[in-house]
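Collaborator request, handled under Task 6.
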Amino acid sequence: MGRPRILILGGTSEARLLAEALAARDDCDILLSLAGRTEKQAAQPVPVRIGGFGGAMALADFLTTGGYGLVIDATHPFAERISANAAFAVETTGIAAIALRRPEWQRLPGDRWQDVQSIPAAIAALGPSPRHVFLATGRQGAHHAEAAPQHFYLIRSVDPVDPPLALVDVNYVLDRGPFTLEGECALLRQHHIDVIIAKNSGGATYAKIEAARLLGIEVMMVARAPASTLTVVETVEAALAAIDHLFSPVMKRGV
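Structure tokens returned to the collaborator:
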């Protein structure tokens, strides 16, 4: 057997850190796949493939043709479609797979969370009276705000919302995290935010949740979809241990 080939389905900081760690070891061949939804791509430490595969069967064919021995689903916790396609593809091909999923944020004393199942549900839960809303879900799904145009919306994303929303009272901020607690508090105060809509993505964008707690601001927390059917690990270190468990004999031979 040659060097193990690993496909990382990425788009998260964890995917980049895992790719970086594997590249430094130089005992396997890595391809990092990115959806390409973000125009300003960060530099990556391994070869990168941009764009979708064309569905679950096409992904299965890609894995088989490429001779991959492991798939690591390290996509965003809310990238349900690619995760479902990955689960189908590995079940069809019999290729080993793990999911790298950062832990969810947990409610703490002082948090004013209202759990919702989707962005549209969060928008509906805002109520009829005008509010100042920080829609902190990125540009994907921002159009749902058009269903409740009576509110002011602050929308932060890496890339511009295109086309712009059909709203009278909206402010766009283009920025890439991680963000500081001090900066998030200042942003919320500046725009008089009284409610945040956020996905429970976990990870480094937590400062806005801390800021909401400190300022007594309500959070509409969008829940994750049911967990992947793949074996789940929560850290890069756990993913590396799982890879070692699968491939260590081959890696030690260096062939």
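The cover message to the collaborator said: "The chain is about 30% helix and 20% strand. The first strand starts at residue 5 and ends at 9. Please let us know whether this matches your experimental observations."
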